[in-house]
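Progress report, Aim 2. The chain analyzed during this reporting quarter is listed below.
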Amino acid sequence: MSLIDPQDAPLIGTVGGQAPAAEQKKVLSFTILHTNDMHSNLIGVGPASEYSPMTLNDDRTIGGIERIASFIAERRKAREAMGPVLVLDVGDFSIGTPFGGATHETGAELQCLSMAGYDATTFGNHEFDAGPEALAKAIAAAKKAGHVPPILAANTHFDGDDAGLSQFKELAQAELIRSHMLLERGGVRFGLFGMMGTDSIQFTINPGAVTFSDPIETARKVAKQLRAEGADVVICLSHCGVRETKERPNHRRRGYRSGPRCARDRRHRWRPYPHLRAPTDHRQRHSGRAGWLLWRGAWRAGDPDGRGQRKIESYKLHTIHDTIPGDPRLANAVDAFKAETSRILFAPRGFAIDEPLAMIDRDWSNSFFDLTASMPLGNLTADAIRHAAKADVALNAAGMVRAGLTKGNSGVQTVYDVFLLAPLGIGVADQSAGGSLVVVYLTGREIKNCLEFLLIGNPNLPVR
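Predicted structure tokens for the chain:
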């Protein structure tokens, strides 16, 4: 059975319209396979106990690095005869599942990206959730295992005197972290660089002594440098968020959408386009969870008059599901990472990663846009906090509840599944995974004021 979609037949695009017959041989297509916001989802989304990547058509889970690795191999084989194929991840590859809670010791996500065939990745804001030292340890663990992809971070700086940056500096000296790179493939020199956008920087909650320079100015500088170093095509791996302001709706120059961007025109000017607008549905944007973004670009050498433009031939989000066989090598790696994660994260608390905790008879929704449907999950998490803290009232930020519960075929919810509800944060006392619970004494009026303040700030609530 082939994984090739019929509509993925070879497409030959031209730059700047139909090229003269004498110049047709100058037309070159290249393919970018791209994921973003994988958030440590190394196994499929759905009940963890039902995930079976090595057998087909027997579960409804979505995603999984074993399936993604197989898909990459298939897509490379299908497209490489038509031009170079690049595989890029655009940040937030970690934090969001139990694997993220143990990544400082395993470097599991980076190891899997490397083994799956990624050419490069970059940082997202969640990479810094546990602080720069924990992130550096994760990279070092992947390096020690011999599986780490190039990490490109042009506007992320760790050159200060803070002792917590020492390991970052060592990794940079070893060129595991760098601002940019040149990659020659199929006779084309690709210049790649990574970028944290304005929104991403704003939501980096625990950067420590790491600093970030202006993304636009940095992009101009690095693109110019890459051109000087001989890049034919410049691509920015930008983790920039999806917010659109009223003053600048879909303002591409600010780069409010995560993804790869081509950044060089025939006159060697920085160009903010072509820019792909993937569907804005949250489930589709997080391609590691629900889909796979296949990007095809076309580029033509020469064209000295400067009138040519690249043309995006097509793009498509590919769902990674149970019709795709898993890669055996990645399956073995994930099994090992699961065992290590269980030992590091759950054994000290008396649990095991695959241990069943509960049964549910329906899906428990988690949505910012349907608060009625999400209320049972909100009550569950608030009651859990209230019970653990021995409090009378519990408040929980909706953005800290990161997943719902999926019934699947059996309804069984394991320790892994329940951890997904609130995977962010680190402890104050022991720096272990999970946000700290804070107990305060408030009067009734103070609680009322807090609730009114929160209502005013949320445009999705009925009072708006």
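The CA atoms of residues 110 and 148 lie 6 Å apart. The chain has two domains: 6-317, 355-456. These observations will guide the mutagenesis work planned for the next reporting period.
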